[in-house]
Design a protein that fits this description.
Helix 1 links the parallel strand 1 and strand 2. The chain has about 120 residues and is α/β, with parallel strands linked by helices. The longest helix has 14 residues. It has a 5-stranded parallel beta sheet, with helices on both faces. About 45% of the residues lie in helices and about 15% in strands. It has a single domain, classed as Rossmann fold (3-Layer(aba) Sandwich). The protein is globular, with a radius of gyration of 13 Å. InterPro entries: DUF5615 (IPR041049). Pfam families: DUF5615. This is DUF5615 family PIN-like protein.
């Protein structure tokens, strides 16, 4: 059983990443800046996250679900977590920490989840 690692998409509110790392310093949550995701298209972002074994955390409800579906037809994904932009930052942090504490990386392979549902 492997711990879940996260990758922030370029559209994710950086306060979510910063706050999650502040509350749980052992969390592996890479910023979009660190991964150089700015300006990259969804398939490339999904490929980078998969290559690094990270669940992609995004606000993109418009294009990411369809791109994810296309991606997993030919490749494995480490998973995608879509957080509503209307979700308070503290609730988004709580969700990420719950996933980190209560699930394994293996459970996220080729899975997509949206919060709220």
């Amino acid at each position: 059983m492997t711990v879940v690692h996260f990758q922030a998409d370029a559209d994710l509110n950086q306060a979510v990443v910063t706050g999650a790392l502040r509350r749980q310093p052992n969390l592996s949550f890479q910023s979009a800046y660190t991964a150089r995701l700015e300006g990259k298209k969804d398939p490339e972002v999904l490929a980078i996250a998969a290559q690094d074994g990270r669940v992609l955390v995004t606000h993109d409800r418009k294009t990411m679900p369809a791109e994810f579906g296309e991606f997993i037809l030919t490749k494995n994904s480490s998973g995608v977590l879509i957080l509503s932009q209307k979700l308070p930052v503290s609730d988004a942090i709580d969700a990420i920490l719950l996933i980190w504490e209560a699930s394994t990386a293996e459970e996220w392979v080729n899975q997509i989840m949206s919060i709220p549902f």
